Amino acid sequence: MHRPLVITEDHALLDDLVRIAAAAGAQLDVAHVPAHARPYWNLAPLVAVGADQADSVAAAAPPAREQVVLVTREPDDPDTWRKCVAVGAQTVVSLPSDERHLVERFADAMEPDPRSGSVICVIGGRGGAGASVLAACLALRASADHLRTLLVDADPLGGGIDALLGHEEASGARWGDLVAREGRISSSALQAALPAFGDLAVLSFHRGDVAPIPAQAMRSVLEAGSRGFDLVVVDLPRHLDPAATEALTRAKTTLVVATADIRGILSASQVLSETRKHTADIRAILRPGVLDEEVVVSSLGVPPAGNLPDQPRLTATLNRGELPRLGPRTVLGNLCTSLLQDLLPAT
């Protein structure tokens, strides 16, 4: 894979660019003069031209291309934008103020196959409503349809969605490993680190003591997930913490699983009052109960997205480390297929 190209003879600036690229997990090709840059100019995913070499690069008249930035430490220099136009750059990056932006640019340049995955959050209207089962089944159904899918466990006290899948012993990174790492996560690094089963990757918790997920860690994972996967399914806790709030703000759609009984609706209404503060598109998945569907929908005030039926012998199935059948002839399989067709962009 080709590397970003830096053109500068300013050694202090080069040291900064090498450090910034390392934060993005990138290595650089370096040219101190434009002549040395010619073999890399068209191949590099990103070209960063130091302000000290801008006029020399312009004089060399390289072919016009996208993804060229001018890097300067003197944003107030009135000559900066002239240099930007002359070199064919699309933007000016000023250090140190734009350092985070440049990390993002380097990281984006290193993504081998950027995607635009949708984030779908699933949350229970009350405990035991079946939100984790739905999240897991939705991710399994998507991966069975050859959608590259990431299933994220965002509930530190939920017991581990990897255990629900029967893969708690699978090798790979858990939340504790990712939280310990600072900075942005590339999608390729995330995919390589996580336990994976075909087209499904799973991010869950270690057994034993767990710590809350920092919002920044959730942000990094969801950004990497959206770039590297077709679908990201997040299983949320009912009591929203900063990480859950971060996930909601990035969700295309949030599914609230509500049971059709008095306590279930009262509890789901409280969950919805908090959820609405952080996301717009919320839909209800209804579990059977004593109340009619129209009463439940009217009480919740969100549109229904489907019905999640009771599953005979579900507890025994889950305790064996298995999930319900999701074939085309099953009600649960049909629900997941319908949800994916409704919620994901047509391809």
Could you explain how this protein is built, in words?
By secondary structure, this protein is an alpha/beta fold. It folds into 2 domains: 5-109, Response regulator (Rossmann fold, 3-Layer(aba) Sandwich); 118-343, P-loop containing nucleotide triphosphate hydrolases (Rossmann fold). It has helices spanning 11-23, 34-41, 54-60, 80-87, 99-109, 131-144, 161-164, 175-179, 187-193, 215-228, 242-249, 262-275, 293-300, 314-319, 331-343, and strands at residues 5-7, 29-31, 47-50, 68-72, 91-94, 118-124, 149-153, 196-197, 200-203, 231-235, 253-259, 282-287, 304-307. The strands form 2 sheets. An 8-stranded mixed beta sheet has the order 8-9-7-10-6-11-12-13, sandwiched between helices. The chain has a 5-stranded parallel beta sheet with strand order 2-1-3-4-5, sandwiched between helices. Helix 3 packs parallel to helix 4 (80-87), helix 9 (187-193) packs across helix 10 (215-228) and helix 10 runs parallel beside helix 11. The protein is elongated.
